[in-house]
Design brief:
30% of the residues lie in helices and 25% in strands. By secondary structure, it is an alpha+beta fold. A hairpin with a 5-residue loop joins strand 1 and strand 2. Helix 1 crosses helix 2.
Amino acid sequence: MAIKTLRATGHMGAGMTVEIMCGAHKVYMDQPKNSGGADLGPAPPELILAAYAGCVGSIGRIVAHQEKINLRGMRFEVEADYNPDRLLGRETSDRTGFQQVRLSVEIDADLDAAAKQDFLERVEARCPILDNLANETPVVTRLLG
């Protein structure tokens, strides 16, 4: 299969809001009220966690369909630790990104615990969000205008 290019475009909205178009879908990101935002949407790091959970769920459905597993549902909890000092311009030796990401998954299927763990590992092996979190991806930045 050929390489597929995804695109998101956006602009700054009112206050701390950022409006992003992902295909035909508009996503609003904001900051909490105690950080100067209007809390109109999740903060960007929270969307990474949401994308990870969504990817595991989507790939879970694909794998279950392909392997004829009766997957009734999955529940997710994704947590991540980070030190906000660097993004706020404060001195720190911590990186600005997540120090650790933790995924907890509950799988509702007629599988024993070992089979559920094996299923989850196959799902994670196919998740592009996890791949991008776990591996260095080259990023190219260019200034327009």
